[in-house]
Amino acid sequence: MDRFNAMRVFTRIVELESFSKAAEDLQIPAATATYTIKQLEARLGVRLLQRTTRHVSPTLDGQAYYQRCVRILADVEETEAGFGNSGVAPRGKLRVDLQGTLSQHYVLPRLKEFFARYPDIELEIGIGDRLVDLVRDGVDCVLRVGELRDSSMVARRVASLQQLTCASAAYLKERGTPHTLEDLQAQGHHAVNFVSPSSGRMFPFDFIVDGEDVSINLPGRVSVTSAEAYAACCINDLGLVQMPRYHIAGQLRSGAVVEVLAQWRPRPMPVSVLYPHQRQLSPRVRVFVDWLSDVMGAAS
Q: Residue 155: CB partners within 8 Å, gap ≥ 6?
């Protein structure tokens, strides 16, 4: 029995909680996955997995073995990658999930550079803002915007994006340009309100006044859950928005969109890469995270 291969099969079954899903993920027959685990349990002399009709979970012995397998597999991969002179470079499939607008503006246009540097890595890219269970979904890392709340992941800050308050020139011509925060209500301004697709929370407008955070809720006739729709509503004269500069830079240069209240800009928006603790030693993950850090660092 190939012990390393058995470890890989076992860890994916634990992570996906399913023999069939693990087999599909590893591109092997389901019967092979089942036979591999039977052999592994027989060799170790312990039961590693609890099986029901709907669920697979590790036993206490299985959980302890899983933690060691993850470390061993990562260590083997890192060791092999360290012998660059022997022709062993980071290789294999890397599953990543990228925030939509960031990927389109910064990451996808420069992927050719990554492949030129690491030709043996294959990327499987998901695009979106959905919550991803990195371990269960088999995702190696994600690029996300905003403050992080998941302490179970390793997080690396890669950029801080300048945010601004803006509206279309046509909207400001109709409503007036606010010069103070009080003008927002006095002039009857409307917001395009952004709603978190995961929590349903509506984000207020944030400003920094004398070093302190000030939040203001503005009435709005439209609420959206995507950055693309948020920018489109602004461009089409529906109200004020707050967003990273890069997302609307072209319209700012042309004058179609105008920044307002620049002296009270909100705090920069953090951008981070997240990955599970057990992935941090993987050479594939490490080189991709380093590359993302370089790409996004240039965007700050």
A: 148, 272, 273, 274
For residues 3 and 50, give the distance between their C-alpha atoms in angstroms, rounded to a whole number: 21
In terms of Cβ atoms closer than 10 Å to its own Cβ (0-12, 13-18, 19+), residue 241 is buried
Looking at residue 75, its amino acid is D
Identity at 233, one-letter amino acid code: C
What helix, strand, coil percent values describe the chain, rounded to 5? 45, 25, 30
What's the burial of 67, exposed, middle or buried (CB within 10 Å: 0-12/13-18/19+)? middle
How far apart, in whole angstroms, are the C-alpha atoms of residue 152 and residue 134? 11
CB neighbourhood size of 138 (10 A): 17
Cβ count near 168 (within 10 Å) = 22
Residue with token string 């409307």: 190
Q: What is the pTM of this model?
A: 0.68
List Cα–Cα distances, 156 to 29, 101, 138, in angstroms. 37, 19, 19
| Distance separating alpha carbons of residues 56 and 68, to the nearest angstrom | 19
Q: Which amino acid is at 297?
A: G
What band does 131 get if pLDDT is binned at 50, 70 and 90? low
Most confident residue range from 112-121, 149-158, 162-171, 286-295: 162-171
The residue type of 241 is V
Per-residue pLDDT tens for 140-152?
A: 888 888 877 656 7
Q: List pLDDT tens digits, range 225-263.
A: 988 899 999 999 999 999 999 989 999 999 999 999 999
The C-alpha atoms of residue 188 and residue 209 are separated, in whole angstroms, by 21
Tokens encoding 89: 């470079």
